[in-house]
Amino acid sequence: MSHSPTTDTDGEPPWKRSLRGVPIELVPIALLAAALRLFRLGSESYWLDEVVSVTLVTSNTPSELLVSVPGNDPHPPLYYLLLSGWAAIFGTSEVAARLLSALVGIATVLVLYALGRRLFDREVGAIAALFVAVSPFHIWYSQEVRMYNLLALLTALSFYWFVQLHRERPDEIGVRDDIVYVVSTVLLGYTHVFGLFAILAQNLYVFSRPVVRIAPRSRLTIRRWIALEGITALLLAPWLVRLFRRTMGASAGEPSNVSWIPLPTAETVSRTFAAYLGGYLLEESLPILVSLVVAGCLVLALSSGRVTAEGDRRVAPINGRYTVVLWFVVPILVPIAISHAVAPIFADRYSIGASLAFFLLIAIGVRTISRPSLRYVVVGILLVGLVLPLPTYYQEDQKEQWREAAVDVESTVDGDDAVLVSRPFAEEPFSYYFDRPNVTVDQVDPEASDDEIRAAVDGHDDVWIVLSYVDSSTSQRILQAVADRPDYRGPVEERRYNEIAVFRFERTASDG
Questions:
Q1: What is the CATH number of domain 402-511?
Q2: What is the pLDDT of residues 228-262, one digit of tens each?
Q3: Glycosyltransferase RgtA/B/C/D-like domain: from which residue to which, for each copy (predicted)?
């Protein structure tokens, strides 16, 4: 019997056979994640931290990024090395540099789906991936030239291969799983210090199994795990030694590169959870209905035992719920404890890896609801809550607009004028965009005396003062120091560029 050319031997169209293995629900989620991360990617200028990233990779060789830069920058070198190679190929425009983070963000959604499906089922994986796809928190860092989305991706990859290590059939446990787990985890450790807390969560799972007695028996033996972690620690040793020295210095009161981080409180934790849901973009707090639904889903996730892994028999005998809870809790509570014992180190963006577990827990809670129609309602409410801040995110400037500020000053200033920028946070981003080498640009320290400020403008015509990250009293004192000079009038002009203030003082005609 002949077969129709439009079907295979099983009666399946060729296009279906070619896509077999790609879950149909993942396609729209991936497309949605891509659209939200690529939309208006280069519309805003770099802000301070992004300028730091771009400047580091353009002013240092790869060997310097690997050896020298980690001594001054608080973060490990992997992201900078990756960005350096990326910039060498695609350039350092806002779109080009941010595209790396956008692609990493899309990949994070895909890996989270695979992990949720591996630990539980397709529905949990799809719901968690959908929430992360539209999460303003993840979209924000998918459009920023920093390492935070890479931290999220490698955290998900490390946990995926951690689950793989527990596979039940001994003939499926091979060297490949060991190698890929170690590589992904080492890369995680070299991306951000908070990656170490994800590794700590994995160790707590393995070593607490005999104690808590809620994790099933596993083919991953303690001896094999210690060997894998020993190799991982050995490969991370250069960074761990440097991190240890820095921690000891901080505990002894030495200056720290993260001295801007405040001591975390209970309010810090609640703000972090709100940030995961995009609450920082709303003028008011999160809608009460969304907050209640999220809280209800988390309670269901922690209390119900309905969700089990689907019929993929390669799934490990691993307690998925316990794994996700540790993944969520450890990278938040341990850094907060360290913050109180040694020095503050907790910032919400550093916990972006834990936010993936947060969305997985919500997805688990949704999945425990027995009625499908009610599940759809809950997912709809949460999606509305997540999407609600996005118009504000896209329509309004979220970062300091250094490009616009520098270009405006550049278009008006002349060679006899002086530009004063506040230290330490305005000098680098302003200078990155300001391209008038014949114009004097001086730095004014917030602690500078009035006489020092006045001396900086001697012999110049108009004076431009660029202030950012300066409290109102300091800002007023700097402006008053120039206004008190009899040969200047003003400020005659004031411009605002989202957390940047630019003032112009005019030299009086009698002294011109």
A1: 3.40.1010
A2: 999 999 999 999 998 888 777 655 555 566 677 89
A3: 75-169
